[in-house]
């Protein structure tokens, strides 16, 4: 349940980011945007944009980042790095509670504008924000994952112990194992920001749990 809750929150944040209302200029992604998957309301973190020069001469592409705020208000922040051929650089923008919208999320979109042999590209991310003042987002995420995985391992052990005692409900035990694996895969996609595959895993998990509930009740 903890792993499913984490997966749902991470996937939901990325889905909301896509439909939040930030402008879309192109369908080309440049894969340079990196956001923390989880933050707490009391912390300040950074999002990073990595830009590479894959051309044969120096370029200075304009990098613009739009970050969410209350009531769809966004902030525009621009930087123009100078990159020699083969060079790359990572730019940082701060994130805080001032960027929270819809109660539990921060959304951001980065644009790399055209330059010599470098096309227009963009990237989007969503960040899940929880109210947990004792830890920062990285520590909370690590603790959340550790407890979730520990619970799954204990559950696997109990299932194996039950299987050695009785052969009844074999289908139920197999279904629970499959549900645990699907949940971990959903968490992985949520951490990667791949909301399409993550949502697919989450739908499979919901359907699987409905079938398991039916087996358990009957």
Strand and helix layout:
Elements lengths: L1 H17 L14 E2 L3 E3 L4 E8 L10 E5 L7 E5 L8 E8 L9 E8 L8 E10 L6 H29 L4 H23 L2 H23 L1
Parallel strand pairs: 2-8
Antiparallel strand pairs: 1-3, 3-6, 4-5, 4-7, 7-8
Sum this structure up briefly.
The protein is α+β, with helices and mostly antiparallel strands. 42% of the residues lie in helices and 22% in strands. It has a 5-stranded mixed β-sheet. Strands 1-3-6 form a 3-stranded antiparallel β-sheet, with no helix packed on it.
| H/E series | HEEEEEEEEHHH
Annotation field: number of helices: 4
Poorly predicted regions? none
Would you tell me the structural class of the helices and strands? alpha+beta
Order of strands across the widest beta sheet? 2-8-7-4-5
The tally of strands reads: 8
* Separation of the first and last Cα atoms: 22 Å
Protein architecture, described:
The protein has 218 residues and is α+β, with helices and mostly antiparallel strands. The chain is 42% helix and 22% strand. The chain contains four helices and eight strands; from the N terminus they run αββββββββααα. It has helices spanning 2-18, 137-165, 170-192, 195-217; strands at residues 33-34, 38-40, 45-52, 63-67, 75-79, 88-95, 105-112, 121-130. It has a five-stranded mixed beta sheet with strand order 2-8-7-4-5. Strands 1-3-6 form a three-stranded antiparallel beta sheet, with no helix packed on it. Strand 4 (63-67) and strand 5 (75-79) form a beta hairpin. It starts with a helix and ends with a helix.
């Amino acid at each position: 349940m903890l792993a499913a809750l984490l997966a749902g929150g991470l996937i939901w944040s990325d889905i909301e980011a896509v439909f939040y209302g930030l402008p879309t200029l192109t369908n080309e992604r440049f894969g340079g945007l990196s956001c923390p998957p989880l933050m707490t309301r009391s912390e300040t973190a950074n999002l990073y944009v990595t830009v590479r020069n894959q051309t044969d001469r120096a370029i200075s592409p304009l990098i613009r980042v739009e970050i969410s705020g209350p009531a769809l208000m966004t902030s525009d922040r621009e930087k123009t790095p100078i990159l020699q051929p083969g060079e790359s650089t990572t730019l940082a923008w701060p994130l805080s509670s001032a960027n929270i919208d819809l109660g539990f999320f921060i959304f951001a979109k980065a644009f790399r504008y055209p330059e010599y042999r470098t096309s227009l590209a963009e990237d989007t991310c969503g960040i899940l924000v929880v109210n947990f003042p004792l830890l920062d987002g990285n520590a909370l995420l690590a603790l959340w994952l550790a407890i979730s995985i520990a619970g799954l391992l204990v559950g696997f052990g109990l299932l194996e112990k039950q299987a050695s005692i009785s052969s009844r409900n074999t289908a139920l035990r197999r279904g629970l194992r499959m549900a645990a694996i699907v949940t971990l895969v959903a968490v992985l996609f949520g951490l990667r920001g791949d909301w399409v595959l993550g949502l697919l895993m989450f739908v499979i998990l919901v359907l699987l749990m409905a079938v398991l509930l039916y087996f358990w009740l009957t």
